[in-house]
Amino acid sequence: MKNGILILLATMLVACGASRVNKSTTKTDENAPEGVKGSIAMVSEKESSASAKVAEINTPISAENFSNETRIGGIMNFLASDDLKGRDSGSEGIEKAASFIEDIFKQNNLKPYFSSYKDTLSNFSKPAYNIVGVIEGNDEQLKNEFIIIGAHYDHIGIIKAKKDSTVIAEAAISKDTIANGANDNASGTSTVLELARYFGNAGNNKRSLIFALFSAEEKGLLGARHLAERLKAENIDLYTMLNFEMTGVPLAGKDYFMYVTGYNKSNLAEVSNKYAEENLIGFLETAQEFNLFQRSDNYPFHDVFNVPSQTFCTFDFTNFNHYHKVGDEVSLMDFDHMAAVVNKMIPVIEGITNADEKEIKYQ
């Protein structure tokens, strides 16, 4: 999320939530659930080719228990590795992440939305790219309506180049200068990539699905702003934008699984819970208090299109205290929880994309 939250975090007493040390060092998915074919290779520091890290996916794949710890671990161990140097926009590290995302799109039947998967930002000084793929809907009428499923894949890079005294002090103590950005936002990126893998192979979406991974979110939501304005110029019929941010650790002490920013602005939570058949989405008062609705990549689409555009999140200011710090490491991520985010969202997105009418509405 944007840097504006950092000041708020510094004033709050936060505790590190339940976490699990990542022990995913195997390079196969031999323990994947029945029905899951193919594999995503687990990443080691010695591997440099993105294409070597993603094995070809075969279809069909069952929606039940679709994602799992091994697949999530493979994506996370690459995106949040030191080799990517914190994925700062315009850096060599984020270029590797971009190639990795492109490979996953290619292998799972997503077509480039534009002439290529890379969508060059027009509002950032360095070369930077959104990665944008599309799965055309299978209904002759509804395929002309679009749903965007997105997350930002950039982070803040090397801490020693930053000016914030708190994070510099932490870096000096730990002897670590790389802000790996596991929770922010390799986690949301992993969610989107797994959803792309599912829908790219299922082929069961009536409406067209755009999968977008944004650069330069940390610079002021620039990647999302660029894409929103470019799609608006094309006059596409955008139904809704569903964004994923900081999904790496579970909520604690809540009777719901996730929250959405801008909860009271639309009926997205109600629609989601209907298709999930559980209390999946709840209201987080802190998200409203700190206006998180305007602090992630959903907001430019709301601003440009004025359609329901909201962010799904499991970061609640009490379960993770490494925001924009070098401590945002993959070892603190809960891969089982992250797989559950994917698996619980599949029927929600299926329901939304295949409903006869546009159900999600601003209130």
SSE blueprint and pairings:
Elements: H1 4-10, H2 69-79, H3 92-107, E1 111-112, E2 118-120, E3 129-135, E4 145-152, H4 165-174, H5 182-202, E5 208-214, H6 222-233, E6 237-244, E7 258-260, H7 268-276, E8 281-282, H8 285-289, H9 298-305, E9 309-313, H10 335-354
Parallel strand pairs: 4-5, 4-6, 6-9, 7-8
Antiparallel strand pairs: 1-3, 2-3, 3-5, 7-9
**How many distinct domains?**
1
CATH T-level fold name: Aminopeptidase
CATH architecture call:
3-Layer(aba) Sandwich
DSSP helix fraction: 25-40%
Q: Stretches where pLDDT falls below 50 for ≥5 residues? A: 3-59
CATH superfamily: Zn peptidases
- Estimate the mean pLDDT confidence: 85
Number of strands: 9
Provide keyphrases for this structure.
363 residues; alpha/beta; Aminopeptidase; 10 helices; 33% helix; disordered N terminus
Task: Produce a short descriptive summary.
Helices cover 33% and strands 12% of the residues. With 363 residues, it is α/β, with parallel strands linked by helices. The protein has a single domain (4-354), classed as 3-Layer(aba) Sandwich (Aminopeptidase).
